[in-house]
Specification:
The complex is a heterodimer of chains A (451) and B (387). With 451 residues, chain A is an all-alpha fold. Chain A folds into two domains: 6-178, no CATH class; 186-268 and 342-450, no CATH class. Chain A is built from 20 helices and no strands. Chain A has helices spanning 6-22, 25-41, 45-67, 71-97, 102-107, 109-112, 120-136, 145-153, 166-178, 186-211, 221-252, 270-276, 279-290, 299-314, 318-341, 346-360, 368-380, 392-407, 410-413, 426-438. In chain A, helix 4 packs antiparallel against helix 7, helix 10 (186-211) packs parallel to helix 20 and helix 14 packs across helix 15. Chain B is an alpha/beta fold. Chain B has one domain (77-385). Chain B is 40% helix and 9% strand. In chain B, the strands form two sheets. Chain B has a five-stranded parallel β-sheet with strand order 3-2-4-8-9, with helices on both faces. A four-stranded antiparallel β-sheet of chain B has the order 5-1-6-7. The longest helix of chain B has 26 residues, at 23-48. Chain B starts with a helix and ends with a helix. Classes of the chains: A mainly alpha (451), B alpha/beta (387).
Chain lengths: 451, 387
C-alpha cells in the first residue's frame, strides 16, 4: 500500500488510529502488528509470506546467536534473509553477469517472474543489524514475538525506511504496551504527514509527470539538463516525503522515528552529503560494514567497498554499481583535497556538490548507454532533433521547487520548537492536505519502493 | 558505550517537533484542521459528484450511425469498460471481438471485414492480460463471448515494462473486478479495499473540479457527430484566466499546449474516435529505460493460457497478436522475453501473430506509437491465413 493513495489516507489510517487508541493496552501491539501485516499483505501474497518467514526465522535465530557466540551461527542466521534478498533482487542480474541462457533462466522462472517485494532491502537490513547487535551483546534477543514482529513490520517505515535499530524502538514499544494512557503528539503527526504528502504530490509527483515525458532520442542538451536537474529534486522530495510521512505516522502511535534527511542539497562536500542523505542507511553501512572492515585504517579501500555496496543495495545492475563507485570516488577525491576545498566560498561548495550529486542520479533510471547519451547531450548542449521539450512552464515549476529546496530552512519550518505562523497553522495544513488529496491523480509509487 | 550505541545517540536523533499541545489547545488545533479538510474535500466531492459518470444509463452503440461518436474525455476507464460491457450484455454477441489496451483503439469493424455489428472493440485505456481474462470470463458467464474470433493484443513490453501486460490496473467495472468474472467468485478483500480507494480518488479528481470551476476544456457529453466533435475547439473553451491556463498546462504535461486536448470518443463498433491525422508518422523510439520484469514470460504465458481456455471452444478461436509499437532493432531484455513468449505459446498450441517488426513500416501508424486501421486490416488478413 502506498501512503499517497486515497485508500490509505481516508480508510486505512483513520481506522487504525481509532482502533489503536480505543484498544486496551494489552491489544495495542497486536493491533499495530495486524494493521502492519494487512498494510503489506495488500501488496501481494508472496511479498507478505516472505516478510513473515523472515520475521519468524530471525526471531528464532536470535536465541541461537545469543547462546552460541559462534561466527558460523551468525553467518547462518543472516544468510537466510540475505539469501531471500539475493534471490528476489539480484538473481536476474547475477544470471546476466554469468551469461546464463534462456534455458538456465527458465529453471528460475518461478522466482524471476516476480516483481521485487517492496521494502525487502529495508527490513532485511533491520533484521541483519538486530542479529549482529545480539552477537555483539548490545541488545538481548526479544522474547515477545509480537513486539519483535512489530519492530520489523511497523507499517510507517516498513517499505522505505528509515532503517531502524532494535534499541531505537524497543523501549518505545514497551511504553506503548505498558502505559495505561497514551498521549500521542497528534499535532506533530498531522503536521509531518501533511507536509510529507504535499512534498510528495506537489513537488515530486507533478515534477515527475513532466520528467517522464522526456524523449532522450529527440531532446537536446537543454532538455537533458532539465531531465537531470528535475530528477535530482524528484528523488529527494520523493524519498524525503516518505520519511517525513513516516515520522508523522509514527507520532499517531506514540513512536518517534529518526529523521532520515537533513537538507542534503545544502551539503558542502560529498562526504557531508552522505551524512545528510538517507542517514539511517549511511550509518548502517558505516557501523556494519566500514568499521568492521577496519575503518580508517584502510580508508580508500573501505570507502570503495562501502559505496559499491551502497550502489548494489539500491539496485541490481551495472548502472547502480557505477553510481556507487562514482560516489565513492567523489568522497575519496574530497578526502584528498579537503584542505583546498574547505577554504572555497560556501555557496560555491554547495553548488558544486549539488551538481556532482545530480549528475549521478540518471544512473537510477537509465542504463549505461542512456546515461552516456544524456551526459553527452549536456556537455555538448546538442540541439534538439524535435522542438525543445521542456517549455517555460516546466522550467518555472522546476525553479519553484529548487527555490524551496535551497531557500527554506526546515529546522525553522518543520523541526521547530516554537509554532510557526504558517507551517503549524491548522487551517494552512488542512488546505494543504486537501489540495494534495485532490491532486492524488498525479500520485506515483515512491521511487525507493523499488529498492 | 559501544560504537553502535554512540553513533545512534549522536547521529540518529529523533526529530524535535513543536511543543506537545494538550487539552483545549490540541483539541482546537485538531478541530480547525479537521474542519478545514472536511469542508474543502466535502466541497470537492459535492461538485465532482455531478460529473462522476456522465453515462449512468449506458449507451446504445447499436443505435448510433457511422458518423457518430460517444464523448469520453475524462471519463474514468472503468466507466468506459462498463459502457462496452453494458452494450455487449444488451445485444447479440458479435462474431469478432478485439481485446487489449488503447494501442488497438483503431481496430475497427471495417478492418475486421464486418461492418454490420458483427465486430466489437472491447479495448480500454490500459487493459492488460489479467483484466482481459476476467472480462472474457464475465462475458462467457453471460453467454456473450464473441462467436468466432477473439483477437487479443499482447502489448509490447517496451512500452511499459510489462506493467500493463501482467498486472491489474483496475479498469474493469467493480462487479467484474471483484468477482473475477465468475471464474473465482470469492470475495476479495484486497481488491475491494483498492477499489474503495479508486472510488474516493475518482470523486476527488482535480480535473473534474477544474471543469466545474472554469469550464476549461469541459466536453459536451453524449452522442455527437464527428463533424461537430472534431471541429476546432472554440477559443472560449480555453479560458484565458490564470487558473484556466494552469489547468491546460497541467493536463498537457510538458508538451507545448495552448489549447484544449482533442476530444476522445468511441464509435459504434467500440473503436476509438480520433481526429484525422494530417501526416501520420512513425518513429522507432529506442527504449532507454532498462527495467523489465526478468523472466516475465512465464507470467505472460500463464495468462495467455487462461485466456485461451476461456475463449477456445464451440467454434471460437483465440488469436494473440503483438502490434508493431515502440520497437527497437537492437537486442533488448524486453524483446528477448517476448521472443520466449511467442515461441513457447506456439509450442503450447496457441495462435500468435508476431508483428513487432512491423514498426519499420510507417504506413501502419497513426502516430509514432499507435497502429492505424490499415494495420488491423492487414492483421485480419494474417489471421485468416492461420491454419
Amino acid at each position: 500500500m502506498n501512503f499517497n493513495t486515497s485508500e490509505f489516507l481516508f480508510v486505512f489510517l483513520p481506522l487504525v488510529i481509532v482502533v489503536f487508541h480505543v484498544a486496551p493496552r494489552i491489544a495495542r501491539l497486536p493491533v499495530l502488528l495486524a494493521s502492519s501485516f494487512f498494510f503489506y499483505w495488500v501488496s501481494g501474497d508472496l511479498a507478505f509470506t516472505l516478510l513473515v518467514v523472515t520475521v519468524v526465522w530471525s526471531a528464532l535465530m536470535a536465541f541461537l546467536v545469543a547462546r552460541y557466540n559462534s561466527l558460523w551461527i551468525i553467518i547462518g542466521a543472516v544468510a537466510a534473509p540475505l539469501g531471500f534478498l539475493f534471490i528476489f533482487k539480484y538473481l536476474g542480474f547475477a544470471l546476466d553477469v554469468v551469461g546464463a541462457g534462456a534455458g538456465t533462466r527458465g529453471h528460475f522462472g518461478f522466482i524471476l517472474q516476480h516483481v521485487l517485494p517492496a521494502g525487502i532491502s529495508f527490513y532485511t537490513f533491520q533484521v541483519v543489524s538486530y542479529l549482529i547487535d545480539i552477537r555483539d551483546g548490545t541488545v538481548a534477543p526479544e522474547k515477545n514475538p509480537i513486539k519483535f514482529a512489530t519492530f520489523i513490520s511497523f507499517f510507517p517505515q516498513l517499505i522505505a525506511g528509515p532503517i531502524l535499530r532494535f534499541e531505537q524502538i524497543s523501549g518505545q514499544l514497551d511504553r506503548i504496551a505498558g502505559e495505561p494512557r497514551l498521549t500521542p503528539d497528534l499535532r506533530s503527526g498531522v503536521k509531518f504527514l501533511t507536509w510529507g504528502l504535499a512534498y510528495k504530490i506537489l513537488f515530486a509527483d507533478v515534477l515527475r509527470s513532466f520528467h517522464e515525458l522526456h524523449d532522450l532520442t529527440a531532446g537536446g542538451g537543454l532538455d537533458a539538463l532539465y531531465s537531470v536537474l528535475a530528477y535530482s529534486l524528484i528523488i529527494y522530495f520523493d524519498f524525503w516525503s516518505y520519511s517525513l510521512m513516516a515520522i508523522g505516522l509514527g507520532k499517531f502511535f506514540c513512536i518517534d522515528l529518526p529523521r532520515n534527511f537533513h537538507e542534503p542539497y545544502m551539503s558542502t562536500s560529498p562526504r557531508e552529503f552522505w551524512r545528510r542523505w538517507h542517514v539511517t542507511l549511511s550509518f548502517w553501512l558505516r557501523d556494519y560494514v566500514y568499521l568492521r572492515l577496519g575503518g580508517n585504517r584502510a580508508y580508500i579501500l573501505n570507502i570503495v567497498v562501502v559505496f559499491v555496496a551502497c550502489g548494489i543495495w539500491h539496485g541490481a545492475g551495472w548502472n547502480f554499481i557505477v553510481w556507487g563507485a562514482y560516489h565513492g570516488a567523489l568522497v575519496i577525491l574530497y578526502h584528498l583535497t579537503a584542505a583546498f576545498w574547505d577554504n572555497r566560498p560556501k555557496a560555491l561548495r554547495i553548488i558544486v556538490t549539488f551538481a556532482l550529486v545530480s549528475l549521478g542520479w540518471p544512473l537510477f533510471y537509465l542504463d549505461l548507454s542512456g546515461f552516456t547519451t544524456t551526459m553527452g547531450a549536456i556537455l555538448t548542449m546538442a540541439p534538439a532533433a524535435k522542438a525543445v521539450q521542456f517549455g517555460a512552464f516546466a522550467w518555472g515549476y522546476l525553479g519553484v521547487v529548487a527555490l524551496w529546496t535551497f531557500a527554506v530552512r526546515e529546522d525553522r519550518w518543520l523541526f521547530n520548537t516554537e509554532a510557526h505562523r504558517i507551517a503549524d497553522n491548522p487551517i494552512v495544513l488542512g488546505l494543504m492536505f486537501a489540495i494534495s488529496a485532490v491532486l492524488l491523480y498525479f500520485g506515483r509509487t515512491f521511487i525507493y519502493f523499488n529498492f | 558505550m559501544s560504537n553502535v550505541s554512540r553513533n545512534l545517540d549522536e547521529q540518529l536523533q529523533i526529530p524535535a517537533g513543536p511543543p506537545l499541545l494538550s487539552g483545549r489547545h490540541l483539541l482546537a488545533f485538531l478541530l480547525l484542521f479537521a474542519m478545514t479538510l472536511g469542508l474543502a474535500l466535502g466541497w470537492v466531492v459535492w461538485i465532482t459528484g455531478r460529473t462522476a459518470n456522465p453515462y449512468p444509463d449506458g449507451i446504445d452503440f447499436s443505435a448510433m450511425n457511422a458518423k457518430q461518436l460517444v464523448v469520453i474525455n475524462q471519463v474514468q476507464p472503468h466507466y468506459v469498460t462498463g459502457l462496452k460491457v453494458d452494450h455487449a450484455l444488451k445485444n447479440a454477441a458479435p462474431n469478432i471481438g478485439a481485446f487489449g489496451s488503447h494501442a488497438i483503439g483503431a481496430f475497427s469493424a471495417a478492418a475486421a471485414g464486418d461492418g454490420q455489428g458483427g465486430f466489437f472493440n472491447f479495448s480500454v485505456l490500459h487493459l492488460g492480460l489479467p483484466e482481459i481474462r476476467d472480462l472474457m470470463a464475465h462475458l462467457k458467464s453471460k453467454g456473450k463471448l464473441p462467436g468466432k474470433f477473439i483477437m487479443v493484443a499482447l502489448q509490447n513490453p517496451h512500452t511499459d515494462n510489462f506493467t500493463h501486460i501482467t498486472q491489474y490496473i483496475r479498469e474493469l467495472p467493480p462487479e467484474i473486478y471483484l468477482l473475477h468474472g465468475g471464474e473465482r467468485p470469492t470475495k476479495n478483500l484486497r481488491r475491494a479495499f483498492q477499489l474503495l480507494g479508486d472510488v474516493i480518488r475518482d470523486r476527488l479528481d482535480w480535473r473534474k473540479l477544474a471543469f466545474a470551476l472554469t469550464d476549461t476544456c469541459k466536453p459536451d457529453y453524449g452522442v455527437m457527430t464527428t463533424t461537430k466533435a472534431f471541429a476546432p475547439r472554440a477559443a472560449a473553451d480555453a479560458h484565458s484566466n490564470l487558473l484556466g491556463r494552469l489547468i491546460i498546462q497541467l493536463q498537457g504535461g510538458v508538451k507545448k499546449q495552448n489549447s484544449c486536448p482533442p476530444l476522445l470518443g468511441l464509435h459504434r463498433d467500440g473503436r476509438n474516435a480520433d481526429p484525422p491525422q494530417k501526416s501520420p508518422t512513425q518513429i522507432a523510439t529506442d527504449p532507454i529505460k532498462s527495467k523489465a520484469v526478468p523472466g516475465g514470460s512465464a507470467a505472460v504465458l500463464s495468462l495467455m493460457g487462461d485466456i485461451a481456455r476461456i475463449g477456445n471452444g464451440e467454434g471460437r478461436r483465440v488469436i494473440f497478436f503483438t502490434p508493431p509499437t515502440f520497437e527497437t532493432p537492437r537486442k533488448s531484455p524486453q524483446n528477448t522475453l517476448m521472443n520466449q513468449v511467442v515461441t513457447e505459446a506456439a509450442k503450447r498450441g496457441m495462435a500468435v501473430i508476431d508483428h513487432r517488426r512491423g514498426f519499420t513500416d510507417g504506413r501502419y501508424f497513426r502516430d509514432y506509437m499507435h497502429p492505424n486501421e490499415r494495420y488491423f486490416t492487414d492483421l485480419m488478413k494474417s489471421a485468416g491465413e492461420l491454419k
